[in-house]
Design a protein that fits this description.
Layout lengths: L1 H12 L8 H9 L3 E6 L2 E8 L2 E9 L8 H15 L4 E7 L3 H9 L3 E10 L7 E9 L4
Keywords: Transferase
InterPro entries: Acyl_CoA_acyltransferase, GNAT_dom, MshD_Acetyltransferase
GO molecular function, one term: protein-N-terminal-alanine acetyltransferase activity
Length: about 140
């Protein structure tokens, strides 16, 4: 149920890349270290290992863009991360995804590395992945 709705939003949010399948979402949601922040229309899927949290994906339905949903989801993730004694949140974002980069920059993430030609595109050349990180102060 929820996996199907997440799949639909993810496909709309990432229209120039291979969207995640319903099965991929189902498998991730079964893992006890994976958490879903938000709802099917705007969400973050993240995984905690030791004191690090990786944002696996963040997506918002296009009709809800620029309304603060992703910002609120990130704030909620940071709060939860601190409650779970995480010291770092990291993620990969496509170098051409300017709105996402701006969102993460505003939230205090900094680039720590690049993965050249990491993301395949439906149309055009592969795109670099920027690895971003946010260090957390203790709660």
């Amino acid at each position: 149920m929820i996996a199907k709705a997440l799949t639909e939003t993810h496909a709309l949010a990432f229209n120039d890349a291979r969207p995640w399948s319903e099965q991929e979402f189902e498998e991730l949601l079964k893992q006890n270290r994976v958490t879903l922040i938000g709802d099917a229309q705007s969400f973050i899927l993240a995984r905690q290992v030791a004191d690090e949290i990786e944002i696996l994906t963040l997506a918002t339905h296009p009709s809800l863009h620029r309304q603060g949903y992703s910002t609120k989801n990130l704030e909620n993730l940071v709060t939860q991360a601190r409650e779970n004694d995480a010291s770092t949140i990291f993620l990969e974002v496509a170098a051409d995804n300017r709105p996402a980069i701006a969102l993460y920059d505003k939230a205090g993430f900094a680039q720590i590395a690049t993965r050249p030609a990491y993301y395949a595109r439906t149309h055009g050349a592969p795109v670099d992945a920027l690895i971003l990180q946010k260090k957390l102060d203790p709660a």
